[in-house]
Structure formats: C-alpha cells, structure tokens
Amino acid sequence: MPATLEREKELIARIIAGETNLFHELIRPYERMVYLSILTMVRNQQEAEDAAQEVMINAFRHLKSFRGDAKFSTWLVTIAMNEGRQRLRKAKAVHLESLDESKEDREGDFTPAVLTDWREIPSEALEKKEMRQKLREAVEQLPPIYREVLVLRDLEELNQEETASALGINITLVKVRLHRARMMLQKMLAPYLSAAAPARKGFFGRMFQ
Amino acid sequence: MTRECKNVWEHISEYLDQQLDPKLLMDIEKHLENCEVCSAILDSTRNILVLTADDRTYELPVGYSERLHARLEKVIRETAKPRNDSA
C-alpha cells in the first residue's frame, strides 16, 4: 500500500534537498500502476517496461516541479499517461487508431449484451486463466479514450477526481466514458461471463479472497 | 425487456459506483428484484470489474522492479551533486 501522504511529503522534501536515494522508496508503491497505465496503452510488454522506466526517470528529474497540490500518485500517473499517449500516437500510423475526441459523439448508444442463458454458465469461469486473457483482449480493443478512463478507474482504482486530473478532462466526461467503456466490455465479454456469482454481495476484491 | 430496462442500463455504472441519488436507487433496486435480464447485466458487469481489479489479470514482467531500480540507481548517481566529503 502507498505510504501515507505525510510520509510522501517528507520523502519528496528530503529527495529535493539532496537525499536522492530515497527516490527508490518513494516510487515503490507505484511501480505497478505506472507500468500498467502504459501497458494498456501500448500493448507491448517490452515497450511498456522501457516507457515505465522513462517515466520514473522523468519524475525523478522533475520532482522539483511537483507542487504538492495534487497527490504524488496522480502527478506520476499523469506523466505515465502522457508517455503512453505519446507512444500510442507514434504507433497510430500503423494501427490507424484515433485519439480524437470528436469520435465520441458518433459512438451512439451503448446497450449491454442481454444474457439469455446466464444461469447455465458456472461462476468458476471467472477463476479461469482464459477469462483473464479474454478480458485483457477486450480492454485492448476499447478505443483509447475509453480505455484510459477504464484503466485508471477500474484497474488502478483511482477516484473520479484523480482520473479527471490525470487525463486533463472533467469529471462528467470521466463518468460518461467510464460507463461506455464498461458497457462495451460487458458486451464483448458477456458470452464468457456468468452472473452466477453471488448477487449484490461484495465489490472490488472482496469476492476473490 | 421494457423501456424501464433501458433506463436501468444507463445507470449501471453509477449504480456500481454507488453514486445514485436515493430515489433513483430505490427505483432501480425495485426493478432489479423483478427483472432477471437487468440483474444478469448488472452482475456480469460487476464480475468484469472484479476481474479487472484482480492483480492476477495483469501481471508484472519477472524482474521488472529490479531492472527499474537498477536503471534509476544509475540516473540517481549520475545526477547526484558532488559533495565536499573528499575523505
């Protein structure tokens, strides 16, 4: 778990004052977050790892410009998202993928997939490796503007304000895009997913202990 | 499937994030009690989110952390200000 905010503030001050070795400790809780933010954008492990290293190095070099009005984690994930977007843009010529905001209005309605035979699918499906693979593939297929919101909210579990701040968009847009992203995933994955898990019991994490 | 169903789908995300105002929440819960289609959609969406947040879905490459800190260490050393401890 991330260090407390107080501890983080202290670490940052000491690093800026010259105890640069403490940077290792500062970023340790966020290694995973930075890597995954980028991985879900660039979709290539090696590139994501390189990019994650770049992000951390950049964060180290520019730590002085961290103002402390946002959380350090939000600041860091902002750098990571920018790095991911930049690399995605470079690859765009190949993938013909659009980061355009204008696409938003043309997406139309997002209706979920109706599961007619959902009772027949065993809940163990969720525990299967293949299911995780399917989910990763589905996330990859989301248009970037939806994917980045989903990754920050549902994978990194940032709150709405942090997500908005990291992506430079407003909270309403975070909500709209998150809803669409989730519905798109539901549609793509419904054939593999059961609703047989205990209904309305727990939420994130609690069902998998 | 009814018009009401469609209205419920539009709020699934907010429902899962517990952001609905009490009146709407009550309406939706009432609907969910009687509508298997919407309950299934809600549960499948929730399952997807549980799976998304599950650490096993995305795993770090083996040795990622070690390589990261090794590279950082190099950068940190290079940029460290020369100190006056000439001892």
Topology:
The complex is a heterodimer of chains A (209) and B (87).
Chain A: H1 5-16, H2 23-27, H3 31-42, H4 45-61, H5 72-95, H6 129-141, H7 144-155, H8 160-167, H9 171-189
Chain B: H1 3-10, H2 12-16, H3 22-34, H4 36-53, H5 64-79
Which properties best describe this structure?
heterodimer, A: 209 residues, mainly alpha, 0% strand, elongated, disordered C terminus, B: mainly alpha, 5 helices, 69% helix
Could you characterize what this model shows?
The complex is a heterodimer of chains A (209) and B (87). Chain A has 209 residues and is mainly α. Chain A has helices at 5-16, 23-27, 31-42, 45-61, 72-95, 129-141, 144-155, 160-167, 171-189. The longest helix of chain A has 24 residues, at 72-95. Chain A is elongated, with a radius of gyration of 19 Å. In chain A, 36% of the residues are buried. The model of chain A is unreliable at 97-103 and 195-209 (pLDDT under 50). Chain B is mainly α. Helix content of chain B is 69%, strand content 0%. Chain B has five helices and no strands. In chain B, helix 3 crosses helix 4 (36-53). The mean pLDDT of chain B is 88. The chains are: A mainly alpha (209), B mainly alpha (87). Chains A and B meet through helix 2, helix 3, helix 4, helix 6 and helix 7 of A and helix 1, helix 2, helix 4 and helix 5 of B.
